[in-house]
Amino acid sequence: MKSLPAVVLVACVAAAQGPAWRDRPVLDTSKSAYAVLHGVPVSAVALRDGFWSPRRKAAIAASLPTFLELLEQNGEIDNFRRLSGRKNVARRGRIPTDADVYKWLEAVAFAVQSGDAGPHIRQAAEGVIDDIAAGQDSSGYMVSAFMGENASQRHTGMARNHELYIFGHMLQAGIAWYRASGDRRLLDVGLRMADYLLRNFGLDKKPIFEGHPEVELALVELYRTIPDRRYLDLAGYFLDGDPRNMQAVRPADLVYLFTVEPFTDRTILEGHAVRAMYAVSGATDYFLETGNRKYQTTLANLWEDMVGRKMYVTGGLGSRAQGEAFGDPYELPNRQAYAESCAAIGNVFWNWRFLQATGDGKYTDVLERALYNGANSGLSLDGKLYCYRNPLEVGGDADDRIRNPWYSTPCCPPNLERILASLPGYFYSTSKDGVWVHLFDNSEVRWKLEDGTPIEMSQQTLYPWDDKATITVTPASAKNFTVFVRKPAWSAAARLEVAGVMVPAPLVQKGYFAIRRTWKPGDRITIQFDMRPRLTAANPLVRDDIGKVAVERGPLVYAAEGLDQPAGTTVFDWQLAVPSGGAAFKSVWKADMLGGIVTLVHPAVRPAVPDREQPLYRNMAAGKYVSGELTLIPFYTFQNREPTSMAVWIPYRIAGTAAR
Amino acid sequence: MKSLPAVVLVACVAAAQGPAWRDRPVLDTSKSAYAVLHGVPVSAVALRDGFWSPRRKAAIAASLPTFLELLEQNGEIDNFRRLSGRKNVARRGRIPTDADVYKWLEAVAFAVQSGDAGPHIRQAAEGVIDDIAAGQDSSGYMVSAFMGENASQRHTGMARNHELYIFGHMLQAGIAWYRASGDRRLLDVGLRMADYLLRNFGLDKKPIFEGHPEVELALVELYRTIPDRRYLDLAGYFLDGDPRNMQAVRPADLVYLFTVEPFTDRTILEGHAVRAMYAVSGATDYFLETGNRKYQTTLANLWEDMVGRKMYVTGGLGSRAQGEAFGDPYELPNRQAYAESCAAIGNVFWNWRFLQATGDGKYTDVLERALYNGANSGLSLDGKLYCYRNPLEVGGDADDRIRNPWYSTPCCPPNLERILASLPGYFYSTSKDGVWVHLFDNSEVRWKLEDGTPIEMSQQTLYPWDDKATITVTPASAKNFTVFVRKPAWSAAARLEVAGVMVPAPLVQKGYFAIRRTWKPGDRITIQFDMRPRLTAANPLVRDDIGKVAVERGPLVYAAEGLDQPAGTTVFDWQLAVPSGGAAFKSVWKADMLGGIVTLVHPAVRPAVPDREQPLYRNMAAGKYVSGELTLIPFYTFQNREPTSMAVWIPYRIAGTAAR
Question: pTM of the predicted model, to two decimals?
Answer without folding.
Answer: 0.91
